[in-house]
Amino acid sequence: MPSIRAMLALDRKLLRDLVRLWAQALAIALVMAGGVASILIAVGSNRSLEETRIAYYERQRFAHIFAHVERVPNSLMRKISRIPDVAAAEARIVKTALLEIEGMPEPATGRFISVPDGKAPSLNRPYLRRGRMPAPGAADEVVVNEPFAKAHDFLLGSEFHAILNGQKRRLTIVGMALSPEFVYAAGPGDVMPDNRRFGVIWMNERALAAIYGLQGAFSSVSLTTTRGASQEAIIQRLDTLLKAYGGQAAYGRRDQFSHAFLDHGLDMLRSMSRTLPPIFLGVAVFLVNLTLGRMVLLERGQIGLMKALGYRDRTVAFHYMKFVAIVCAAGILIGWGVGNYLGSYVTELYAGYFKFPLLIFAPSPDLYLLAAGLPVVAGVIGAMRSILNVTSLPPAVAMHAAAPPKFRRGSAPALLPEAMLSPLMRMTVRNLLHHRFRAGLTVLGISTSTALLIASLYIGNSMERLIEVKYFRAERQDATVNFVHTQAASAIDDVTRLPGVLAGEGVRTVPVRIRNGMNERRILLYGRAADADLRQIIDTQLRRVAPPTNGLAISEWLARSLDVDIGDAVEIDLLEGRRRTVRLPVTVLVEDYFGMQATIDLGALSRLMREGARINQAELRVDRSRLGALYDSIKTIPAIGGIALQLVSLENFREAIVVIVTAMATIYTGLAAVIAFGVVYNTAQITLSERARELASLRILGFVRAEVYWVLVAELAILVVLSQPVGWALGYAIAWIMKQDLDADLMRMPLAINPETYAISSGVVLGASVCSALLLLQRIYKLDLIAVMKTRE
């Protein structure tokens, strides 16, 4: 058994090894840190959002089921409350109205929600941030959601006007709140939140009921269910009770807009946590195996001497494992620090879109342990082969130099004519061919950095393609007007006569359930005129098609969800008006990246609804120079409940996407650069240590330093160049996997990768490779020819 003094001698040797190989050890530690950080960023941010959401929903009693109707007597609430497995039920009044705000020319839209006079609602409770709830009996006091108040610099006591049921009323803000129902608050017709143009407003129930003539009645009901309850059964019972009162069918959280968007954001983080860590694990395993393997090979004599002096195999193996452990520890500590910083940044980024009372990045101890497990696993797997070599070397064998490599004539000339290769290049090619396996792993390692960059930049490319199809090919209108109630189709003539309106087209939307066997989705069915030009239907080949008169045009995603194709028939439950079930064939598959919807000819939809030609939206082309006059006119029309501006929607979408894409691209670029630098630098250092005697011989034979340096760099250059096509293919594959993970009912992304994305990705990797190669130049110039030539091989 070696003495403590002998063990301290091994520790001194370990310290010398770390000082001598500090750059390689740091490069490996940085790759491991990238894996640790990626877990903390993705899983930590996901947990922060998920745990915050769960606590927020429970504390504010966010409902499980919602239903909106025209008018239902309060007496029906007793029957609703008695539905089996309903834990709580609350009736309220929900209305949409136009808002007039001083200094803002365009009309904003307000979602008015009633609260019981003098007390907080039992479900969907607002979380007061400032002020108080409206006083009992106060008719003009309101609470507004905090983002809307901040967007307009409102203070307690600030006032604005609202057009409520045709009446213009001055309202006073007495409180500011957040709501679990509007964590992601987007107005009618908008995809991205616009806090200037959309606000949530809570008002006393008596006041709102008096304005809309709903005394003793409600227009919306919310339910919570018992644990394990069947929501489908409850929704069916609720729809049966509400069927005679008009409105739309009930739906669960999955179809609640805010909750669905938050789910989509969480899915993005989950996708990141599944994609990145395995890449870093694989690269770290390769680097540890490469570095430790060469370290053991160069120290064969020392290993044999230690064994001859009485050190046991496990003692020697533990000595090298301590080297790996220190590198892993450094990677873990760096990764924890970087992961905490970037995790906080990503969480703050999400906090800009999802409004919680408090959202902080606070990973739990088990997550730190989970993240630390990645370098540990990588270190153990990477070191296993080298440790086995250490334990299997008998002292007598280890004391002798390893057998020199065997080169065979014909390898390089078989690839290229000998005249095309200089003597130095032949040396480079032969060395690569001799170490085929290591060269292949190096190519794979470098290619992963290229792939990561392509996968990160792909998001930006896909968003630009999405914008092109959605905003410039399909939805070409300038504005969409939403009516409070359905109107006769002739209402479009009145709208087109408004100031600044150049053209207009009427649209009818009906909520439906579309079903094929056991597959069912709740969607909007759009009715459009056959000659509609402002909103065109684009098929999967990006060609314009007319709304079907004897069938449905549905999105490709919806068809996949229902497991149908062109020619298959689906059942449709009409959830508005005279509710009934019809059966229609799928005739067209369309390209649609947001939500799930189906389109039919406007006349055909009217026949399905058994009503005359009616519309509830108007899509307009307007003269932007006369927008002010149009806004003023819209504010005087009680039938209009809101207006969505396409240009503003596009600007909001671009602004949000730029922030997200820039942040993710920056993170991925840094991680990819770390991988490229770590792989190239370690490969170069290993190659230099292996070929130091050979390179010194070239110097002695008269070759200048630049030529000797070229022998080393040429090998690296070949590996980097060969890795790029592999990286392009891997990048496309990762982008495809990310697309499959991120695609959801709420939003999908096209798989679009521009040629410049491949160029930028390769450029970043080449830049990182050049930096690592330049660091070798100093070692070449300081090469001690006498010391190297004395080295026993």
Descriptive report:
The protein is an alpha+beta fold and 793 residues long. The protein has a six-stranded mixed β-barrel. The protein has a six-stranded mixed beta barrel with strand order 13-14-20-17-19-18. A four-stranded antiparallel sheet has the order 2-10-1-11. Strand 7 and strand 8 form a beta hairpin. Helix 7 runs antiparallel to helix 14, helix 14 packs across helix 20 and helix 19 packs parallel to helix 21. The longest helix is centred in the C-terminal third of the chain and has 55 residues. The radius of gyration is 34 Å and the shape is elongated.
- Overall mean pLDDT score? 84
Beta-strand content bin: 15-25%
Uncertain runs are 411-415
| Number of helical regions | 22
Query: What gyration radius follows from the Cα positions, in whole Å?
Result: 34 Å
Strand count, sense and barrel status of the largest sheet are: 6 strands, mixed, barrel
Shape descriptor reads: elongated
Q: Give the proportion of residues in helices.
A: 40-55%
Strand order of the largest sheet: 3-4-9-6-8-7
The number of strands is 22
Span of the ends, CA to CA: 31 Å
Structural class: alpha+beta
